[in-house]
Amino acid sequence: MASPVTETEAVRVRVAGKVNLALRSGPRRPDGYHSLATVFQAVSVFDEVEATWAKPGQITVSVVGEQADLVPSGESNLAVKAARLLAATAGAGQPLGAELLVRKAIPVTGGMAGGSADAAGALLACAVLWDLDVTPDELRELGAQLGADVPFCLAGGTALGTGRGDQLAPVLSRGTYHWVLAFNEAELSTPAVFAKFDELGLATEPLTVPSALLNALVRGDVQALGRTLVNDMEPAALALRPELRQVLDAGRELGAIAAMVSGSGPTVAFLAPNEPAAVDLSVKLSGAGLCRAVKRVSGPVPGARLVV
Ligand code: C5P
What we know:
Blueprint: E1 11-28, E2 34-53, E3 59-64, H1 78-88, E4 98-103, H2 114-129, H3 136-146, H4 150-155, E5 158-162, E6 167-170, E7 177-183, H5 190-199, H6 211-219, H7 222-228, E8 230-231, H8 234-240, H9 244-253, E9 258-261, E10 268-272, H10 275-288, E11 293-299, E12 305-307
Helix pairs in contact: 1-2, 1-3, 2-3, 5-8, 6-7
Bound molecules: cytidine-5'-monophosphate.
């Protein structure tokens, strides 16, 4: 048995961002959500959530990192909501308190589940801090109440998401994939991209992910994966941010196997054939000066994990 965390100790959790290798969406449902068929891959850009004891009932957050000023610091912060939900349910309404510190590296409103990652991190960090008797399944259920991507952020790896994207099944994936991410200046709100998706009538039928994509993952075939990546949200994101087309084209010209908008954007993800090619692409893309920052990542990586 691990000993309880003392009042001065911090619990640190690392959580990865994601790209959607496939993102197929049906029409808007009566509850406002869209039914999805998506394949998530967790990639090596990480937020860190640190939790320490605070006065009973007091849950606060501070955020540090390049885009910290874009993240709400009060009750609307997803990490705070996650801690409050955990205290109210698994904590049986005990007046538990936590001071949260989020170190952000996942782009904010970037289409990589940054907010959901912080919610996932806060759930795990507070469960450990408060020594709660909560199972991974219960954490996943609480996560789904906070956001459709939170269950995947807890799980990591590669997974098929259905329902709102919150019903997960594991996907067999061999090898490591090398990506170059272009972080863009503009933010894109996920609801706005889904609204544009509706307006443009982009819903897909039937809602399936390409079997060739799943086969490519089983075989570890990066070229085949590149041919089968699909994102139904991309035309909607491009309609709202036409300048992203230039970024997509630049990456393709500079040697990417495939280029796509990540989730609802505006982050653009480029698949590279191998690690040296990813290094080369990231240097050239940085030099092109088309985006706020360029980051080389790999996946799949695990989901929310304690840092000891
Ligand atoms: O679940 P989450 O709060 O992260 O979703 C943010 C927004 O994205 C939702 O309010 C909704 O507008 C849109 N969304 C959707 N269908 C999904 C997931 C998200 O329409 N399956």
